[in-house]
Amino acid sequence: MTRCVAILRRLRGDRRGTAILEFALTAPVFLLLMMGVFDYCWQMYARQVLQGAVSQAARLSTLEEYSANQTALDEKVGTKVKQVFKSAEVEFERLAYESYDQVGKPEPLTDKNGNNMWDPGECFEDMNATGNWEADRGSAGNGGADDVVLYTVSMKFDRILPTWRMLGQPQEVTLTASTVLRNQPFNANSSSSRVICK
């Protein structure tokens, strides 16, 4: 028994190997934290690349060369994004409005019960010519002369570090960037709205 006590006293006083033990305990947390920081910075960089491409597209869309050719403009944005993120999936959406104050607003309706939604029997103004009440009055496409266009681009890409798996997050990230621009009067305005009661 005395021999066991002597061995325990000797081990208690021995400090060799404590650095390795401390490193083994703190290294996984430190590495996870560092990979999380790198992953976050990579996503911020992706957001800046996307926003830069969308801003450039907004400037180009005011030129007559691109106002009628949406596909060429989308290809320019897609090429810019894929120069950095080669496997990214890029999607585009355009919603046209008659003025800036209409962006993201629902179509006007006679809301009899005050629920801010269309119910059968209520009249609404069909601003986007779909024949149905929409929570967003924007019409798909580039609009006409002097229309305001909400141009939204989204990109999907996979994270490059395995942090997502350790934190229980999805591997695929979707980022979006938007800009609002006004068309030049190069073509005829195509504004047409009608009141529908059904």
Task: Supply the number of helical segments.
Answer: 5
Low-confidence stretches: none
Shape: elongated
The tally of strands reads: 6
- First and last CA, distance: 95 Å
The largest pleated sheet is described as: 4 strands, antiparallel
Mean pLDDT: 81
Q: What structural class should be given to the helix and strand makeup?
A: alpha+beta
Radius of gyration: 29 Å
Percentage of residues in DSSP E strands: 15-25%
Domain tally: 1
State the share of residues found in helices, binned by percent: 25-40%
Major beta sheet, strand line-up:
3-1-4-5
Order of helices and strands: HHHHEEEEHEE
Describe the structure in your own words.
There is one protein chain. This protein is α+β, with helices and mostly antiparallel strands and 198 residues long. The chain has one domain. It is built from 5 helices and 6 strands; from the N terminus they run H-H-H-H-E-E-E-E-H-E-E. The protein has helices at 2-13, 18-61, 64-67, 70-84, 163-166; strands at 89-97, 123-126, 139-140, 148-158, 172-182, 194-197. The strands form 2 sheets. Strands 3-1-4-5 form a 4-stranded antiparallel sheet, covered by helices on one side. The model has no long low-confidence stretch (mean pLDDT 81).
